[in-house]
Each structure stands twice: as C-alpha cells, then as structure tokens.
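Q: A reviewer asked whether we had any structural model of the full assembly, not just the individual parts. We don't, so I'm hoping you can provide one. Inputs are below.
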Amino acid sequence: MAAEKWVYMVTAQTPTNIAVIKYWGKRDEVRILPVNDSISVTLDPDHLCTVTTVAVSPSFDRDRMWLNGKEISLSGSRYQNCLREIRSRGGDVEDKEKGVKIEKKDWERLNLHIASHNNFPTAAGLASSAAGFACLVFSLAKLMNVEEDPSQLSAIARQGSGSACRSLFGGFVKWKMGSKDDGSDSVAVQLADEKHWDDLVIIIAVVSSRQKETSSTSGMRESVETSLLLQHRAKEVVPKRIVQMEEAIKNRDFASFTQLSCKDSNQFHAVCLDTSPPIFYMNDTSHRIISLVEKWNRSEGTPQVAYTFDAGPNAVLIARNRKVAVQLLQGLLYYFPPKPDTDMKSYVVGDNSILKEAGLDGENSVENLQPPPEIRDNIGSQDQKGEVSYFICTRPGRGPVVLPDQTQALLDPETGLPK
Amino acid sequence: MAAEKWVYMVTAQTPTNIAVIKYWGKRDEVRILPVNDSISVTLDPDHLCTVTTVAVSPSFDRDRMWLNGKEISLSGSRYQNCLREIRSRGGDVEDKEKGVKIEKKDWERLNLHIASHNNFPTAAGLASSAAGFACLVFSLAKLMNVEEDPSQLSAIARQGSGSACRSLFGGFVKWKMGSKDDGSDSVAVQLADEKHWDDLVIIIAVVSSRQKETSSTSGMRESVETSLLLQHRAKEVVPKRIVQMEEAIKNRDFASFTQLSCKDSNQFHAVCLDTSPPIFYMNDTSHRIISLVEKWNRSEGTPQVAYTFDAGPNAVLIARNRKVAVQLLQGLLYYFPPKPDTDMKSYVVGDNSILKEAGLDGENSVENLQPPPEIRDNIGSQDQKGEVSYFICTRPGRGPVVLPDQTQALLDPETGLPK
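A: Here is a predicted structure for the entire assembly that you could use as a starting point for your response.
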C-alpha cells in the first residue's frame, strides 16, 4: 500500500428499533450478553435513523469520531471492542480509479474517521445508541469488505450497545441470548421483514420529563444486582413470551401481539421498580397514555393499539392499521394538545401526512376535537398542554443500507473531516 | 329477657395500621385469606383512629349502621360475615342498674345499631377500612361479652377487611397467613408493643391525586389473576423478609427495618405494575418523595428514614428519631410548601408540636427554608405547591381501647340513634 493522499469512504443509514419483548439485564457486562431473548420492531429509517460515514486514509494519524457534529472520544471500551472486532475481519479492498489498495493486514494500522448523525434528538430517549452502534459496525463492514452476514455483524454491534444488534435487520427481529461464554451465539436474526405486516402504524409520544433519568446501562446493572423478580422474569416468564410473540408476528395476530407487548413493557418497568433504589422511567403522563389505550382497547372489545415504553417516559404506540392510527392521533391530540401557536407540522413529525387524514391540518383543528366517547372522564381533565413535546408517526421499516449518493456523506471526500 | 326499653351500648377506639411487609393477594376471596404473611406498625390513635359505638336494644327493629354520620347498608357479605361470627360468640350480659339481661342465645335475634367515625378523611386513602372493621369487631366483642382473645377476634375482623386484623394490636403486628382452609389460623399476633421502639416518628404525606384509584380489593384480585410475578413474590421473597423484619423489629435495627420496608413497598407496587391492565398507585409526587428519601439516606451513609406506600399515592415516612423527623419535615416543606395563605397548623396535623421544633411555627418560616444540601438539584425544582394536600405527624401507637366516657359515644343512650 502506497502512502498516497486518498480518502476512501462509505456512508450508511441504519434504523432504530423498539423492543416488544424487553431486554433488561446482562449476564456478562463486558461482552454484553443478556439474561433473556428479546424481540423488536425496526422503525422506518425515513423517520428515525442514524447516518454514519466512515473513512480510511493513510493520511489519518489516529481514529477519530464526530457525533452530531461534535468530536467525541473513542477510548471507551464499547467503541474499542467494536473497532477491534471489525478490524480483525477486514478484507482486501481495491478501488483502481482512486488508487486505493488495502490488504487485509493493513486494517490493523490504518486509522479511521467516523461521523455519525441522528435525524432525531439524541436526548429524546429514542434508542440512539442502538442505531448508532449498528450503523458504525455496518458502515465499517462495508468499508472494510467484511464478509460476515448481518447476524455475525450483530454480535459485534452488540458489544457496543446490546439493543444495537437488533438494528442490523428490518422488520421483526429476535436477539437470541445464546449460551456460549464468548457471546458468539448471542446474535440477532430476522423473524419477518418489514413487508410481512405493513398495516401497522407506529405513533411515538415524546413525553416531557423534568427528572434526570437513570441510564439503561447502570439501571440494568442495579436491577440484576438487587431485583428479586428479575431472574424469575428472565427464566420463567420471557422464554414463553418469546415463543408466543414469534407466533403472533408470524400470524399477524394483533390481539396476541398487543397483549404480549403491553404486559412485557409493564413487567420490565415492574422490575425497575423492584430495583433498589427503585428506578422510575414512566411518569404520570406515561401512565395517562397507558390508561387511555387500555380503556380504548377494552371498549372496542378487541385490541386496537399496543403500547411499549423503553428506559424513559416516551410512549411507543402501535396501531393495528391506518384507520385506527388516525383515531388514536385524534384522541392523543385531544388529551395532549400542543402549546398555543405551535405549528401542527412540528408537533406531529415523521409521516405527518396522517394530519390531513385526521382533519388536523387546518387552523383550530385541535380545539374542535371531541373527546373520544369511550374514554371520557377516565384519564383526567384536558389541561395537559406541554406534557407531550411532540409526536412521531412512523411504521415498521427496513434494515441498514449503504447510501451511494456522495452528497449524503458526512465527511469531506478530500480531507476526511466533517463537512 | 323482657321487652323493656333499655339501650345498652359500648364505645371503642381502634387504630389504623401501615404494613411494612405488604399484604397483596388473597388465596380465598370469601374468607379473606392472604397469599403471604404481612407485618405492620400500628399508628397512634390520637392522630388516626376510628371510634365506633355499638348498641343493642329490644326496641331496635333491624341492624343499622352509620359511617361518618351517614347511614350505610349492612347487606354486604363483609359486614354480614363479621356480624354472624361475632354474634355466634356472644355471652351472657347483665347490667342490673339498667335492667339489662341478655343471654347468649339472645344475640341471634337482638338487633344492633352501629355508628362509626374516622378522625381523618376517609377519602385520603389511609386504610380507613382496617380501623373500621377492627373497631366494629372489637366494640361488638365488648358489648357481647365475647371471651375470645385479640388474635381470635382478629380472625373475625379479617373477614371484614384483611388488614383490619392487624389493627387489633398496638405496636408491631404480624398477620400470619395460616394454612387451614377455614381461616381459623389466619390471625394477627403482636410482635412488640408500642413502647418497644418509641424513638420512631411517622410523617404521612397525603398526596393530591387527580386519578381515580383502583380499589385494593379489585386491584389485588386482578394481580392474583394476571401478574406472573405475584406468586414468586409470595412464595420466595416474602417468607424470608418476614423473618428478617421480625428480627429487625426485635433488635430495633433501623437500617434493616428501612431496607426491608422500602424494598417491600416497591415490590408491591412492582406487582401492581405487572398486573393486566397495570395498576398505578404511586404518582410523580410519590416518586419525588422516594427520590428525596433515597438520596438523603445515601448521603448520610446510614438509613435515616424508611418509606412505604399503600394502595394510593400517600407516602408514609418513618424517621429513626425525633431529630431526624424535624430535618425530614423541613426538607419536605422545602420541596412541598403549602399554597399561599395556608395556616401551617392545618398543613401539618396530628402531633404538630413538631412545627415549633422545626422552626416552622412563625410567619414566612417556609419561605426561609434552605434546600437540604445533600439533595439539592436532584429531585426537580421547588415549584410543587399543592402536590401534597397536608402532612400528618404521628408515631407507633396502642391497640383498641374501650372509651368509658359516655360523652364520647356516637349514639344517643336513650334512642340508640346517632347524636
């Protein structure tokens, strides 16, 4: 390899995901091996994703990374583990046009530049680390001509952030806990792609919080150490739910899907509460959203909407179809209207074509909403302006893709520095 | 027995109690037999109690009851079970002065008048049914010259409201779940009287709630039917905690007492959350109080305050001694000040001599409070006026007593009707 001035780079986009059977608790803190299997839905990257550009050049003097425009340290073990694992699998790369020729052995000493960007607020608690580490590993695998399949790559992404392994696939994904000490069988597999069940519509309520939250890393460590319910959940409850959830997804059985999702979300938060000191991720707004959905589902006789909450107060609501999603959004906006003078298109983001279908694209449209009759008087009064920061409308989506269009790259093709 | 016009009556006072190892779940809904043992602290009846007057007269044409001045139906099975059980144990009663002569067999056909009054708001969620059924059974036992000891009476009160059985004793009380199908061994026993550990000071924060709460009766039924964690808690977790809590009480070991109380309260609420649909008794204010106490205990290195929450958002805080209670009250009033123009003596009730010790009896005294240094910035800003309705300061207290002073009776000694 000559010491030319070339910069060789790849840009990729990776989705985030939301677990419907939850991952909570590691049996190995270093390798990030979980105490139970988990299942997730991949969210459409058009609305929630990470874009990462990775570059290699003989002119780079050290590994560097920029996250959302700001340089961050790569010295943490999670980054180091991912970089070491992926480097050891690098293959030969040649780009005659650019004069690039890299041999397998070169990856150990070539330095990398990495720029990553989330198209949603990192602080919103929307699993940015899952999409981030998945995108890091996926883009580096493409850059380095790594031959591993997505499941094998998922075992690398897992070492950056557990739930990242599930973002290597679109649609419905299972993270198998595995049994080996080295974690090589703790990988994600796709249960069904995003086209398998494309009726589903997902509405995320980004809930305002005044409380600083426990990070999921330290939270789950404390749960493993102190909760007397966690092991029972992991050993006795989750294995059965995994089988049932796989079946529900296979059969597009929305009633079972909803029952399992809601129960498992609640049980995960129950384990958090059983932790010492207790961890509260949901707040009164989260509880109000649950009450609204539970009452609606009961009044309809058959489940219309599933809910699930990760390590924060945000509600992820999965509607059985577009018609239900429209009604759901109307109900949500009735109870959680925007603050005065808020543009509806900034209050409902993502696929906000739903606003028109819900008759909510005009002036005063929220003020004219009627309370959903079946849930009136049940979840408190309509005075909750500001409890929800905004809503995101999305759907199940595809897995990681390379973005071949160089204009989407986050690094300058000449300097390898952020644009 | 002659058909004279006499009215014979007894008035008694009975305390309420707060469980520190929780009762949640029945194995027999009719006899009210629990799935695990529980342990409680009896609260001083000077601050929280029920007073009940029971009267018998040949002139009464039916059983009648008045609760807080309003006539209520006695047709429910809980009242009927208590009345049947206690009647079957009635003895001979003679009061020559009044011309009263009742034989054992007469109790089956003599009618009763019952008037009961709580010295605290029934709606505040302070276990009014526990004190109420205990007082009903205790006062009837006195009226009817029942020879059973308090444990045997507790098995009758238990059939009115499970936790009522623990209000038959002062101090520290265990409700043994028992193993017999007929419930005869599911009784309360005293672990230690109220003088055993009289350093303890109890502050109850009556928390405002805008959500209608699930009754504990239906809540625990739903938990038994749907929570996959409840049986594990009842069988594997609670039995060990009961042994440890008995030991902690015996040794006045406040650190263990606190750890067990807090963990068990949180686990009970975890089981509620694991119920389908989930039950939320604690709200954001409850969570904020927990955070305050947890952080304070950690910063002190050794536990100063235990917390426990029943089926509602109210916090019951147990301070290791009076000095700690004064600091606790100062911290609570800093974070949860009264609304403007509130008289401090109506915001801190019960033993409000503590106000003077805390320097909170003067004008503007709350405004001058400094944030507790160890917990500053940790539980949100100080803008929570109205989150707490009021505080009650109390202590461990005595069991039921007869009130011989006729002026305290709630029924007229001539007519047997409410005064």
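A: Points you may want to mention in the reply: Chain A touches chain B at residues 210-212, 228-229, 232-233, 236-237, 259, 262-263, 266-267, 269-271, 273-278, 280, 283-284, 287-288, 290-291, 294, 298, 378-381 (CB under 8 Å). Chain A has a mean pLDDT of 93.
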